[in-house]
Amino acid sequence: MNRHLLLTAGLGLYMASAQSAETLDHSSMGHAPMPGMDHSQMNGMDHSTMAPSESRTPIPVLTDADRRAAFPPVSGHGVHDKAINSFLLVDQLEYQDARSGSALNWDISGWIGGDIDRLWLRSEGERGNGTTEKAEAQALWGHALGPWWDGVIGIRQDFKPGAPQTWAAFGLQGMALYNFETQATFFVGERGQNALRLEGDYDILLTNRLILQPTAEVNAYTRNDPERGIGSGLANTEAGVRLRYEIVPQFAPYIGVSWSRSYGNTADYAREDGDDTHEARFVAGIRLWF
Fold first, then answer.
1. pLDDT digits over 52-85, tens only?
2. Residue 276 φ/ψ, nearest 5 degrees
3. Mapping DSSP to helix (H, G, I), strand (E, B) and coil, where does residue 96 land?
């Protein structure tokens, strides 16, 4: 019973306080304005004057000692062009079978030096019927003209055909659009004989290991040279396609076909010697690099 009376009394007190709150005149509770403060002008206040002009903890000036501490020297990570590196590529070492007989063909190149300046070495030739029919070697100094191109200058020595002959060489080599390897070399020879050679090849990746490589070469001369079977103008062209399988990147056997053709006076000299002016050959060989 006493518990019921306590609950009833508490409910009555709550209802009375709620009614008194509704009748309360809030206007009578107005606060006195704070002296010197006009709220109507607060919207136009310049807040930029409220920010400090200087950081209370200014950033110290960076010194050389700070830079050395942030980027200490690391062993083995020097600039690449200060290191001496080397590379050797046996691009073609192949057996060739043609109607006129079989032959052994080679095309080798390599370099030694840094990223900017290098000594380039090249050699190519052909042996057939137990004799060397063509052989030459080049030694060139190469200087990087950009990320993809080198200018080269040096000498070329021909051993066959005919008597040995020396040339001065000037050229440009590098990678054109779409990874097309290109060489353009101008040769200044003896007794006013000059020559131009253009070479190019391109790798087509059929798979990660199976690669198709088209190649092309063009040779032109300024004078006739009957002793070596060379005529003025466009002398000869050679094109080929080789399919190689890279067992490892450094070793790849291949098979393919090459086509060669002589023009103008060069073709006339070939007919006089009983040679074909155009010929197709089946080739099989290996490609190596070190």
1. 666 667 778 888 888 888 877 665 555 555 789 9
2. -80, 145
3. strand
Could you tell me the pTM of the whole model? 0.72
DSSP state of 34: P
Burial of 83-102, coded b for 16+ CB within 10 Å and e otherwise, reads eeeeeeebbbebebebeeee
In terms of C-beta density within 10 A (0-12 exposed, 13-18 middle, 19 or more buried), how is residue 279 classed? middle
> Which are the contacts of 213, defined by CB distance < 8 A and separation ≥ 6?
201, 202, 203, 204, 241, 242, 243, 244, 254, 256
Q: Identify the architecture of domain 82-289 in CATH.
A: Beta Barrel (2.40)
How many helices, marked H, and strands, marked E, lie in the chain? 3, 13
Q: How many CA atoms lie within 13 A of 231 on its CB side?
A: 16
